[in-house]
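sorry for the late reply, my laptop died twice this morning and i had to redo everyting from scratch. anyway the thing you sent over, i finally got around to it. pasting the sequence first so we're on the same page, its 356 residues, then the predicted structure underneath. double check i copied it right bc i was rushing
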Amino acid sequence: MTPVMNGAEPQNTRATSRAGRLAGLLLGTACALAAGRAHAQATVATDGIPAADHASIVTLQDENASISTNKLTDRYYVNGLRASYTSPTDITGHWLQNFGDALWGAGRQRFSIDVEQGMFTPDFTNLSTPLPNDRPYAGTLTITGSLIHDTLDTRSLINLTLGWQGPASGARELQNGFHGAIGQGTDNGWHDQLRNEPLGQVLVGRTWRFSLGHLGGIEFDALPAVSAAAGNWRTYAEGAAIFRVGQGLGSDFGVVRQQPGVSGSDAYTPTRHIAWYLFAGGDGQGVALDSTYDREDAPTYTNVAMIHDVGEFEGGAAVLLYGVRVSYTQVFQTHEFVGQKGGLHQFGSLAAAVRF
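ok and here's the structure:
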């Protein structure tokens, strides 16, 4: 029997006691963490609401007819340049949260703000006076505020766009300045572009995400989507479906496109360090109004008749690498007006985004 001197506890007994308390603390902490993790997973599974995302996102995008497999590129929808900021979740305020929940049910919200410039030219850009049956020159400059509302399987959005069409858009200066800098020459008819006019539009849309299973580590899903817009810029309704194959498909709702055109928006939350996918699909648009075809607003008389049903086919790829998303989309578009030249109009869409 080990003697006890002066009431002191033996050293090995004290060590055993400390080890026991430490083991108990670690076990209790592990149990608490496991319980918290299980509770979080149960909350997501029960409510269908994704976890909070505390990152902001900045996106730069360019859509250009020169990024194309088509030989005749500098015509019709020539270029769309866009910059966007997307907020973290849960900072929209109670009234916007309540507004989104009332529209779409409980979900996780964030907002985005983007600035976009669009350029549209006729086929024969060497003429100083555009032909009356060709697309008129037009430039747009807009700012859009969007409310993005997510569940685990859906993304809904509503946005308001305000802006300007005409010389105030700066489209003429940017295109001719860039062409002059690279020695390509200038388009001769920009002086005849559509006059200055304020623009406004409201858009509402939803995208669903349906898993189609997996093969080994490769995932498959489908992204059906609908949207509708009204205003003096564009008024249209659209239905679309995109099919994807890759890894980490739950990171987003598809690549971003400038609208009209099916878009998964700028928001994404990577589910793994490296995610990727290939995609293909299309959309159909019923177009009631497009201000860039406004015959009454052209300086020179035009006789362009819009086609009210437009289809797009697209394919491409996206890579998400440690919080950076890069995507490329090749778009093939049916004719938008009577007398449009060539086959399907083609353009490419290149977007890069970073989380911070």
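The CA atoms of residues 235 and 289 lie 5 Å apart.
thats about all i looked at so far, will dig more tmrw
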